[in-house]
Amino acid sequence: MASSDQKENEDRKKLLFHICCAACLSYVHKIINPEKYEIMGYFYNPQVHGRTEYNKRLSDVRKYCDENKIDLTVPEYQIQEFFDPIMPYQDKNSIKYIKDKKRWRTKRCQLCHSQVLGKTADEAKKMKANMFSTTMLTSPYKDHDEIWNIGLEIEREKKIPFFYTDFRKGYWYGRNYARNHSMLIPTYCGCSYSAEEAILE
Ligand code: SF4
């Protein structure tokens, strides 16, 4: 006969989070109810520019997951998975070329979010998780409606629920957590374009 602890564990939903950095993860992990959800992590970030930045984000996430007993999956870092979908929109010889800077940025971020969430959903299905989501929902700089819509599109296409919660009020909690634990506080979203934009803005 199953014990009550076993029963509770069986009732918990498995929730795979795409993790962008330890700062955002720290808040998501703090507020997700562990009696209802078992959080698992997926560090899939081909968009992150620069090995040093990528490695630092990853080592902080590994440390956090080790200390908090979160299962973490880390696929190979392949930056072309970020560039392949976006390049036709930057190529002047392509019919998809977008000249306008604002429109290009919007398109680029949509494709980037689709890539990251799509792969997270695939991985969630592979590991028989009940839902997928992303710690990017902690950022006040992200377009939440857009992420939500992309998440729902992927939910319909891949037949696995997208878990949406507005985690934005924990943005500063995450930054403080990272500072107090000597972890990286990212200064740009991830890609080389965002690194340049962060300097200019
Ligand atoms: S700014 Fe952020 S969301 Fe947009 S393409 Fe770059 S890494 Fe992706």
From TrEMBL:
<dbReference type="GO" id="GO:0052693">
    <property type="term" value="F:epoxyqueuosine reductase activity"/>
</dbReference>
<comment type="pathway">
    <text>tRNA modification; tRNA-queuosine biosynthesis.</text>
</comment>
<dbReference type="InterPro" id="IPR003828">
    <property type="entry name" value="QueH"/>
</dbReference>
<keyword id="KW-0004">4Fe-4S</keyword>
<keyword id="KW-0676">Redox-active center</keyword>
<dbReference type="GO" id="GO:0046872">
    <property type="term" value="F:metal ion binding"/>
</dbReference>
<keyword id="KW-0671">Queuosine biosynthesis</keyword>
<keyword id="KW-0479">Metal-binding</keyword>
<comment type="similarity">
    <text>Belongs to the QueH family.</text>
</comment>
<keyword id="KW-0560">Oxidoreductase</keyword>
<dbReference type="Pfam" id="PF02677">
    <property type="entry name" value="QueH"/>
</dbReference>
<keyword id="KW-0411">Iron-sulfur</keyword>
<dbReference type="GO" id="GO:0008616">
    <property type="term" value="P:tRNA queuosine(34) biosynthetic process"/>
</dbReference>
<keyword id="KW-0819">tRNA processing</keyword>
<dbReference type="GO" id="GO:0051539">
    <property type="term" value="F:4 iron, 4 sulfur cluster binding"/>
</dbReference>
<comment type="function">
    <text>Catalyzes the conversion of epoxyqueuosine (oQ) to queuosine (Q), which is a hypermodified base found in the wobble positions of tRNA(Asp), tRNA(Asn), tRNA(His) and tRNA(Tyr).</text>
</comment>
<keyword id="KW-1015">Disulfide bond</keyword>
<keyword id="KW-0408">Iron</keyword>
<protein>
    <recommendedName>
        <fullName>Epoxyqueuosine reductase QueH</fullName>
        <ecNumber>1.17.99.6</ecNumber>
    </recommendedName>
</protein>
